[in-house]
Specification:
Number of strands of chain A: 11
Number of strands of chain B: 12
Distance between the termini of chain B: 41 Å
Radius of gyration of chain A: 13 Å
Shape of chain A: globular
Distance between the termini of chain A: 36 Å
Number of helices of chain A: 0
Oligomer: heterodimer
Order of helices and strands of chain A: EEEEEEEEEEE
Largest sheet of chain A: 7 strands, mixed
Strand content of chain B: over 45%
Strand content of chain A: over 45%
Largest sheet of chain B: 6 strands, mixed
Order of helices and strands of chain B: EEEEEEEEEEEE
Largest interface: A-B, 25 and 21 residues
Chain lengths: 113, 112
């Protein structure tokens, strides 16, 4: 049982480049979310989804797009990367009866030069 | 809006010392409260939780009590080990939406 799988683990981009961070879960979880972790800031919610075809913005959505075409996958897209998006990104999911307990992926470290 | 405030780190302790990491929250409703732990190079994992006032969450020797009167959820452990070195995050859920709001994290370093 893989849980939440994120790829890539590390990525370096130049300003203006685009990329997609992949997130997949095999637990049939309805709820999926993306957080970014920055020093001294904790984790901040970027986007989340309560099911296939449904997405919504979190606390810091600007510069990021998401889609949820299947229950399993929730990719995060950076259309034009900026140095301010240098961060560690975490995908997390939970089931309907998960009592709001999130299962996290191992993280993706992104550096934008 | 809802928020979580944790004591700043890093916290450095000797093995077998007593640990307290303070966490207070602001919420309009009746949130569930959580402590997550992040070991070096890994994602976050749930350490313990409490869903209503006066509940005590416990796991691996760690405890935290949901105190509605002081809006607090302090993490304690009677005797820390080197293997407890990690970053600890306090968090609250905003009810039906299921979103978690995190504190800034407290780094704990335990020396032998």
């Amino acid at each position: 049982n893989a849980g939440v799988t994120q790829t890539p683990k590390f990525q370096v981009l130049k300003t203006g480049q685009s990329m997609t961070l992949q997130c997949a879960q095999d637990m049939n979880h309805e709820y999926m979310s993306w957080y970014r972790q920055d020093p001294g800031m904790g984790l901040r919610l970027i986007h989340y989804s309560v099911g296939a075809g449904i997405t919504d913005q979190g606390e810091v959505p600007n510069g990021y797009n998401v889609s949820r075409s299947t229950t399993e996958d929730f990719p995060l897209r950076l259309l034009s990367a900026a140095p301010s998006q240098t961060s560690v990104y975490f995908c997390a999911s939970r089931g309907v009866s998960g009592a709001n307990v999130l299962t996290f992926g191992a993280g993706s470290r992104l550096t934008v030069l | 809006g809802d928020s979580v405030t944790q004591m700043e780190g890093p916290v450095t302790l000797s093995e077998e010392a007593f640990l307290t990491i303070n966490c207070t929250y602001t919420a309009t409703g009746y949130p569930s409260l959580f402590w997550y732990v992040q070991y070096p190079g890994e994602g976050l994992q749930l350490l313990l939780k409490a869903t209503k006032a006066d509940d005590k969450g416990s796991n691996k020797g760690f405890e935290a009590t949901y105190r509605k009167e002081t809006t607090s959820f302090h993490l304690e452990k009677g005797s820390v080990q080197v293997s407890d070195s990690a970053v600890y995050f306090c968090a609250l859920s905003d009810g039906a939406g299921g979103k978690l709001i995190f504190g800034q994290g407290t780094e704990l370093s335990v020396k032998p």
